[in-house]
Design brief:
The chain has 304 residues and is an alpha+beta fold. It has a domain of 93 residues: Arc Repressor Mutant, subunit A, CATH 1.10.10.10. Strands 3-2-1-7 form a 4-stranded mixed beta sheet. Keywords: Two-component regulatory system. This is Bacterial transcriptional activator domain-containing protein.
C-alpha cells in the first residue's frame, strides 16, 4: 500500500468510501490508499451488493480463465484483509463491511425519498436534512473510469441524479422557493444540456416567478441546443409552456395537431424578409405577419 496504511487505523472506526466525482477512502477521518485491484473490488461490492467469489472474479477479469481470475481475487482479498476490515464474507458471498459508509448509497436514498415526496408518496417531513441541496446530486459516478461492468452503473446514477434534480426543482417551486427551484433545474441542464425536462423545470420556475423574459431566454437556449446538436425542434410539451407569440423556431415544428412556424421574441421579423431599419436585424415574417423583438412583443394572453 502507498500513503497511509489502512492497517494503521482502528477497525472499530467507520470508513467512508467516496465514488461520486472521484474515488476516495477515508478511515478514522484520514485518507487511506489501496491498490487498484482492491479499489475495484470495493467499488463493485458498493454498487452491486453481495456477490459470490466466482461472480466477482468473472466481472473484474472477464478476459482471464477461471483459475487466473480466482488467483487474482485471492491476492486482492488478502491485501484487503491486512488493514481495516473493509470486506466481509457472509453466506459464501463477498460483501462490503457494514462499517463502510458509501456516498452513492446516501445519494440514492436521498434521491428516492425526494422523488417520493414530489409524487405524494411520503411527507416532506421525512426528507433528509441535505435533500434540498443541489450539491448532493452534482457529481457523476467515477468519471474517468472506463470499465464495461461500470458503464451501466454510471448511467443509472446519472439518470437518478437528473430525476432527483428535477424533483427538487418541482418541490422548491411548490414551496414558492423560486431561486432554489431555478438552481436545481439549471444543475440538471448543466448535467445534460439536451434534456428537455430539465429545461422545462427552469422555464416553469421563471414563469411562476413572473419572469417571462428569463423563461423565453431559457427556451431559446434549449431550442438552439436541440437544433445544433440533433437537428430537431423542441417538443410540443416544451413549446406550449410559453405564450404562442413569443416562441421561436427557425423551421416548421410538427406535432399532434398540425404544423406551425414560430418567430423569435428576440429578433423582430417583418413580412418582406428585409432588414429592420431601427435595429439592423434581418426581417422575416410570421404566419400572421406580426413583427416581434424583445422590446416590442405581443406576448398574448395564454395562461400558464
Amino acid at each position: 500500500m502507498t500513503g497511509q496504511s489502512v492497517a494503521s487505523t482502528d477497525p472499530e472506526q467507520g470508513a467512508v468510501l467516496r465514488l461520486l466525482g472521484t474515488w476516495k477512502l477515508s478511515v478514522n477521518g484520514q485518507p487511506a490508499e489501496l491498490p487498484a485491484t482492491a479499489r475495484r473490488i470495493m467499488t463493485l461490492l458498493a454498487l452491486q451488493g453481495p456477490l459470490t467469489r466466482s461472480a466477482v472474479a468473472c466481472i473484474l477479469w472477464p478476459e482471464a480463465d477461471e483459475a487466473t481470475a480466482s488467483s487474482r481475487l485471492r491476492t486482492a482479498l488478502w491485501r484487503l484483509a491486512q488493514g481495516c476490515r473493509l470486506v466481509d464474507i457472509r453466506a459464501g458471498e463477498l460483501v462490503l463491511a457494514a462499517s463502510v459508509s458509501v456516498d452513492v448509497r446516501r445519494m440514492l436514498h436521498t434521491a428516492r425519498t425526494l422523488m417520493d415526496a414530489t409524487r405524494g408518496r411520503t411527507s416532506t417531513d421525512r426528507l433528509p436534512h441535505d435533500a434540498a441541496s443541489v450539491d448532493v446530486f452534482e457529481e457523476d459516478l467515477l468519471p474517468g473510469w472506463y470499465e464495461d461492468w461500470l458503464m451501466i452503473e454510471q448511467e443509472r446514477i446519472r439518470q437518478t441524479r437528473l430525476h432527483a434534480l428535477e424533483a427538487l426543482s418541482d418541490l422548491m417551486l411548490r414551496q414558492m422557493r423560486y431561486a432554489e427551484a431555478i438552481d436545481a433545474g439549471l444543475a440538471a441542464v448543466r448535467a445534460e444540456p439536451l434534456r428537455e425536462s430539465a429545461h422545462r423545470a427552469v422555464i416553469r420556475a421563471h414563469l411562476a416567478e413572473g419572469n417571462l423574459v428569463d423563461a423565453i431566454r431559457q427556451f431559446e437556449v434549449c431550442r438552439h441546443a436541440l437544433l445544433e446538436e440533433l437537428g430537431v425542434a423542441p417538443s410540443a410539451e416544451l413549446v406550449t409552456l410559453l405564450p404562442v407569440h413569443v416562441i421561436s423556431c427557425e423551421q416548421d415544428v410538427a406535432w399532434e395537431g398540425g404544423s406551425h412556424s414560430w418567430t423569435s421574441a428576440f429578433g423582430r421579423r417583418g413580412p418582406d424578409g428585409g432588414v429592420d431599419q431601427a435595429t439592423g436585424r434581418r426581417l422575416r415574417s410570421q404566419p400572421d405577419g406580426k413583427t416581434l423583438n424583445s422590446r416590442h412583443s405581443d406576448v398574448g394572453t395564454r395562461s400558464y
